[in-house]
């Protein structure tokens, strides 16, 4: 498929999202621009829209692609990621995708196997017919969407009021009091509350770490592998709401340059710059006896599997059993080192 086809399909989807017309009507208006590839563009746009929920859930399980999306403000580029993800996974051939937006296409292609694995995990194994991914009846409803209240900038009551006034169906999660639950298919990426950092799009499972730590008011907490930063800002939000007087109250570390920049951007957007000290370094290089680390009371240790370069969650069909075992052994070894190091901090009471 031509590079232009992906971008035209993404343009059509972004215009439809902005309510500039029906997707079908917009695609017909772009027929001249599409030229001989119009039928391919038409099918690509419609199929990406049809499988949007499946793709979104897979992206949320693939850190490099999710972080790419978080950094995009242009909705056309945001949709381009999904169009490329569709063609690299569910689309016929599961091919290596190319686009004039080369860096975006490279990230999607590099992580295509991770995305396929995530889709297979959602649906109980390999699929033979793409329509099987959509399910039927109750199965088609999909998982709910979650949004965490950032207590540094907003309140649950204010967020609920805004969403309900705008007609959103929303509830409070039964386990996490500042986590809102929306029906499957709800898209808040461009909502003003998200843009202002009052609400942070974060899956429930990702929120469990800070909730499990349950930090006390003046604890100093360390997030050892912090990027992209959702757990970091969640910890800061909890401590801020408790009236913590410690500054900073969260130490956030990450060694990867690009991921570290995403971490800093998220901390800034959350209004947590005075609460969080971001440091680009390897957690294993930290001396637990040195200041301020010797005062740390709790450590969040959540090393990235898919994005760390240690293991790529390729399906068994894509790599030999021996290669798969080697990757898992390497990952297990590094995670053991990280855990042993975390347990060596003198004042830590929970990891």
UniProtKB/TrEMBL annotation:
Keyword S-adenosyl-L-methionine on entry: yes
Pfam family for this entry, one: Methyltr_RsmB-F
GO cellular component terms attached to this protein's record: nucleolus
Chain sites annotated for binding S-adenosyl-L-methionine: 225-231, 254, 282, 302
Single GO molecular function: RNA methyltransferase activity
GO biological process, one term: rRNA base methylation
InterPro entries registered for this protein in UniProt: MeTrfase_RsmB-F_NOP2_cat (IPR049560), MeTrfase_RsmB-F_NOP2_dom (IPR001678), NSUN5_7_fdxn-like (IPR049561), RCMT (IPR023267), SAM-dependent_MTases_sf (IPR029063)
Limits of the SAM-dependent MTase RsmB/NOP-type domain: 135-351
Keyword RNA-binding carried by entry: yes
Domain of life: Eukaryota
Keywords: Methyltransferase, RNA-binding, S-adenosyl-L-methionine, Transferase
PANTHER family linked to this entry: 28S RRNA (CYTOSINE-C(5))-METHYLTRANSFERASE, NOP2 YEAST -RELATED NOL1/NOP2/FMU SUN DOMAIN-CONTAINING
Sequence similarity: Belongs to the class I-like SAM-binding methyltransferase superfamily. RsmB/NOP family.
Protein name listed in UniProt: SAM-dependent MTase RsmB/NOP-type domain-containing protein
Organism: Rhodosorus marinus
């Amino acid at each position: 498929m031509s590079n232009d086809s992906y971008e035209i399909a993404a343009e059509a989807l972004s215009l439809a999202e902005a309510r500039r017309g029906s997707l079908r009507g917009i695609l017909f208006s772009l027929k001249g621009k599409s030229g001989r590839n119009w039928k391919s563009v038409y099918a690509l746009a419609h199929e990406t829209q049809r499988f949007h929920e499946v793709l979104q859930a897979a992206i949320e399980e693939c850190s490099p692609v999710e972080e790419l999306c978080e950094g995009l403000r242009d909705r056309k580029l945001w949709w381009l990621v999904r169009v490329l993800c569709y063609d690299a996974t569910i689309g016929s051939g599961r091919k290596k995708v190319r686009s004039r937006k080369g860096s975006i296409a490279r990230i999607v292609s590099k992580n295509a196997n991770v995305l396929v694995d995530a889709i297979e995990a959602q649906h109980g194994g390999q699929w033979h017919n793409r329509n099987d991914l959509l399910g039927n009846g109750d199965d088609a409803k999909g998982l709910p969407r979650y949004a965490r209240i950032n207590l540094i900038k907003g309140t649950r009551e204010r967020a609920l009021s805004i969403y309900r006034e705008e007609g959103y169906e929303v509830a409070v999660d039964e386990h996490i009091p500042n986590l809102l639950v929306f029906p499957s298919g709800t898209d808040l990426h461009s909502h003003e509350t998200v843009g202002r950092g009052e609400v942070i799009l974060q899956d429930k499972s990702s929120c469990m770490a800070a909730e499990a730590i349950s930090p006390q008011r003046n604890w100093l907490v360390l997030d050892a592998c912090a990027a992209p930063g959702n757990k970091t800002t969640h910890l800061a939000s909890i401590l801020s709401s408790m009236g913590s007087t410690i500054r900073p109250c969260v130490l956030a570390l990450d060694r990867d340059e690009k991921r570290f920049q995403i971490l800093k951007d998220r901390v800034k957007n959350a209004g947590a710059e005075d609460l969080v000290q971001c440091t680009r370094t390897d957690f294993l290089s930290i001396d637990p006896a040195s200041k301020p680390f010797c005062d740390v009371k709790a450590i969040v240790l959540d090393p990235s599997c898919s994005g760390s370069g240690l293991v790529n969650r390729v399906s068994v069909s894509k790599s030999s059993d021996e290669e798969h075992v080697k990757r898992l052994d390497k990952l297990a070894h590094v995670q053991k080192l990280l855990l042993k190091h975390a347990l060596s901090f003198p004042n830590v009471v929970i990891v």
